[in-house]
UniProtKB/TrEMBL annotation, chain A:
Alphabetic keyword roster: Chaperone
Organism ancestry: Eukaryota, Metazoa, Chordata, Craniata, Vertebrata
GO BP of this protein: proteasome assembly
Gene: PSMG1
Stored Pfam families: PAC1
Protein name: Proteasome assembly chaperone 1
Bias type Basic and acidic residues, positions: 26-37
Entry function: Chaperone protein which promotes assembly of the 20S proteasome as part of a heterodimer with PSMG2. The PSMG1-PSMG2 heterodimer binds to the PSMA5 and PSMA7 proteasome subunits, promotes assembly of the proteasome alpha subunits into the heteroheptameric alpha ring and prevents alpha ring dimerization.
Automatic annotation (TrEMBL), chain B:
Official protein name in the record: Proteasome subunit alpha type
GO biological process, one term: ubiquitin-dependent protein catabolic process
Record's subcellular location: Cytoplasm; Nucleus
Family of this protein: Belongs to the peptidase T1A family.
Superkingdom in the source lineage: Eukaryota
Entry-linked InterPro entries: Ntn_hydrolases_N, Proteasome_alpha, Proteasome_alpha-type, Proteasome_asu_N, Proteasome_sua/b
Annotated Proteasome alpha-type subunits domain residues: 5-27
Cellular-component GO terms for this entry: cytosol; nucleus; proteasome core complex, alpha-subunit complex
PROSITE patterns: PROTEASOME_ALPHA_1, PROTEASOME_ALPHA_2
Organism: Pan troglodytes (Chimpanzee)
Gene for this chain: PSMA8
Subunit structure: The 26S proteasome consists of a 20S proteasome core and two 19S regulatory subunits.
Principal cellular location given in the protein's record: cytoplasm
Entry keyword set: Cytoplasm, Nucleus, Proteasome
Length: 267, 225
């Protein structure tokens, strides 16, 4: 360790290898209590799929009954607001089930009594056209993923002040033959977290999938960010699912006002 | 690269960035939008007020403040930083009046605020102010002025500008619609400010507050409910 001029402590790189190796191994010997705690944690962290607002689990065989042709997943509050006001208000969508999960970073401590509003993921299917996912990839299935990222994560040689934020970028798997409605994500930008996991899964299993990533400078629920997703409504994946655009804008405005969080730090 | 040069304000990165100042500009974008327009006989400041919590006294949530009888400013960013800057500016206005026996010019007080902000980008142990300000007023020569300052301590004169969330969208609207005709009369300038704000406000027209100063007249506030 070395202290720099400004008082920050920096670990100096050592070319002789780490000297602490032996000491670390001794400390890592597991006691039976450690094992017990670890098993309990593993049980708590299981992901559970439940049927509509009840505690019964969603049987996989039930899912297999509904072959899926279009699967749309929205991650992040702006993407979810876009889906719920533009897509889900046209036609009747029925809630099929939800996924509940827990890990150490969650704020709730009770895993068994999570209410339905605390589900992390809710699955809907269109009543007039009941197509929900199955557990194994089907032919002719197409997946659309919507998500947001802060514009400061966008690596570019231009200065961030000149970027027209919010803006859309797309990333698609090899089997996705249609064109995207916006430019593709340039190098060296990468996708993170759940959207990346879904896209990787689709690439490996040769499912046509496209990810639409909106770079914005307002990460909380914001009208302009949600409207940046609008070009997607004209693509083949979402065409036919959206009927009433002016009504959607009204619903979106209502969502904004009900979800405003009070914070006095920024005015 | 950013992570090793962005912890101390007094450290430049190898490619010449002061990351703390740039991060302070991100803090400004978290504040709600404010727009300023300079007309021939009028200056207008329009802000999007956040909706007040039920039990909160509305008078204490102020985004537009008078620095003197003939100068006022709107800010976007950290509320507490703004309070400190405004207090110092108000004191400076009165001190100037006592020393020089003349009210401050808009440019003088803007330069004072900008110098204050720049000082905080060059001392160790103090972070920059996380606010941008739009300062408007009339000078003794009767000419209207609009200035904008940012956390780095720079200031520029503008014909019309916006700060805060979605400022870029509002600025693009102003670039398209700010014409000599648009600001020819007082009411046209006010209309332009309101239209610019309506491009980005989340809740329609319900949370807009305007402040106008006409030549040789005191500040007037208008709320739209």
């Amino acid at each position: 360790m070395a202290a720099t001029f400004f008082g920050e402590v920096v670990k100096a790189p050592c070319r002789a290898g780490t000297e602490d190796e032996e000491e670390e191994e001794e400390g890592r010997r597991e006691t039976p209590e450690d094992r017990e705690v670890r098993q309990q944690l593993a049980r708590k962290r299981e992901v559970r799929l439940l049927r509509r607002q009840t505690k019964t689990s969603l049987e996989v065989s039930l899912l297999e009954k509904y072959p899926c042709s279009k699967f749309i997943i929205a991650i992040g509050n702006n993407a979810v607001a876009f889906l719920s006001s533009f897509v889900m208000n046209s036609g009747v969508w029925e809630e099929v089930g939800c996924a509940k999960l827990w890990n150490e970073w969650c704020r709730t401590t009770d895993t068994t009594h999570l209410s339905s509003t605390e589900a992390f993921c809710v699955f809907y299917h269109l009543k007039s056209n009941p197509l929900v996912f199955g557990s194994c990839p089907r032919k002719n299935m197409q997946i659309t993923i919507l998500t947001c990222r802060h514009v400061t994560d966008y690596k570019t040689s231009e200065s961030t002040g000149s970027l027209p934020s919010p803006f859309l970028r797309a990333l698609k798997t090899q089997n996705f033959k249609d064109s995207a409605c916006c430019p593709l994500l340039e190098q060296p930008n990468i996708v993170h977290d759940l959207p990346a996991a879904v896209l990787s899964y689709c690439q490996v299993w040769k499912i046509p999938a496209i990810l639409y990533l909106c770079y914005t400078d307002v990460m909380k629920l914001d009208l302009i960010t949600v409207e940046a997703f609008k070009p997607i409504l004209s693509t083949r994946s979402l065409k036919g699912l959206v009927k009433n655009i002016p009504q959607s804008t009204e619903i979106l405005k209502k969502l904004m006002t009900t979800n405003e969080i009070q914070s006095n730090i920024y005015t | 690269m950013a992570s090793r040069y962005d912890r101390a304000i007094t450290v430049f990165s190898p490619d010449g960035h002061l990351f703390q100042v740039e991060y302070a500009q991100e803090a400004v974008k978290k504040g709600s939008t404010a727009v300023g327009i300079r007309g021939t006989n009028i200056v207008v400041l329009g802000v999007e007020k956040k909706s007040v919590a039920k039990l909160q006294d509305e008078r204490t949530v102020r985004k537009i403040c008078a620095l003197d009888d003939h100068v006022c400013m709107a800010f976007a960013g950290l509320t507490a930083d703004a309070r400190v800057v405004i207090n110092r500016a108000c004191v400076e206005c009165q001190s100037h009046k006592l020393t020089v026996e003349d009210p401050v010019t808009v440019e003088y007080i803007t330069r004072f605020i900008a110098t204050l902000k720049q000082k905080y980008t060059q001392s160790n142990g103090r972070r920059p102010f996380g606010i941008s300000a739009l300062i408007v007023g009339f000078d003794d020569d009767g000419i209207s002025r609009l200035y904008q300052t940012d956390p780095s301590g720079t200031y520029h004169a503008w014909k019309a500008n916006a700060i805060g969330r979605s400022a870029k969208t509002v600025r693009e609207f102003l670039e398209k619609n700010y014409t000599e005709d648009a600001i020819a009369s007082d009411s046209e300038a006010i209309k332009l400010a309101i239209k610019a704000l309506l491009e980005v406000v989340q809740s329609g027209g319900k949370n807009i507050e305007l402040a106008i100063i006409r030549r040789n007249q005191p500040l007037k506030r208008k709320k739209y409910l």
